[in-house]
Amino acid sequence: DAGVIQSPRHEVTEMGQEVTLRCKPISGHDYLFWYRQTMMRGLELLIYFNNNVPIDDSGMPEDRFSAKMPNASFSTLKIQPSEPRDSAVYFCASSLLWVPGQVIYNEQFFGPGTRLTVL
Amino acid sequence: AQTVTQSQPEMSVQEAETVTLSCTYDTSESDYYLFWYKQPPSRQMILVIRQEAYKQQNATENRFSVNFQKAAKSFSLKISDSQLGDAAMYFCALNAGNMLTFGGGTRLMVKP
Question: What pLDDT digit, counting tens, does each position of A12-27 carry?
Fold first, then answer.
């Protein structure tokens, strides 16, 4: 398995532009997570999906951020319009079904991340 | 709410020596899991070791082991025979019901 795939690996854009980050989870995984990593705030969960349905988006910073999962093998995180404070590394992760007592099913596998720079 | 605290922003160890990274956490869940992730300069998040909260036995993975103290809500990582490749950021993480909460990280430096 190729693992979690994210694209692009690097994105540089200007303030006000729309940015779309993409993620392909590991085949067969039921959960998909989007995280943001910054020096100031560390790793933050933005949103997660179960079977393509958004379950918890309380971490999404504001309405400029939106995420979709149209099918089990693809998700996007969109920022419109982008601002310099959105500059960060964005990670996508996926995991299997949560099964109490089965920790191996609860491990989250991370993609390589997308480094976003908004000028 | 879940919290994870890593009180050591930076640690340094001599190559071949042993180092322990600290982590404390808080959760109201009875069923949860704890993880240590390594993040090298490549940014990739790599799972180092995992621990089921209901297991009293401490997890071990080669040179990596944990000291899990459930009552104290403590989950430290011990790295034995440190190698230059161990230099990275290390994150402690708590997973309760799919909500993975990370600590602030500890930067480990390994001196040759």
Answer: 999 999 999 999 999 9
Probe site for chain B from A45, A103, A105, A115 (most B CB atoms < 10 A): A103
Q: Which band of pLDDT confidence, cut at 50, 70 and 90, is reported for residue B72?
A: very high
Are A106 and A2 within 8 A, CB to CB? Answer: no
- Buried b / exposed e along B20-43 (16+ C-beta atoms within 10 A): ebbbbbebeeeebbbbbbbbeeeb
The residue among B43, B58, B75, B106 with the most chain A CBs within 10 A of its CB, best to mutate, is: B43
Cα distances (angstroms) measured from residue A71 to each of A35, B28, B41: 19, 33, 32
Beta bridge partners of B91: B37
Q: What are B81-100's pLDDT values in tens digits?
A: 999 999 999 999 998 866 78
Tokens 């969109």 belong to A78
Is the Cβ of B98 closer than 8 Å to some Cβ of chain A?
yes
Distance in angstroms (rounded) separating the CA atoms of residues A92 and A33 = 6
Q: Is B100 near chain A, with CB under 8 Å?
A: yes
Question: Could you tell me which residues are beta bridge partners of residue A65?
Answer: A79
pLDDT at residue B52, rounded to an integer = 87
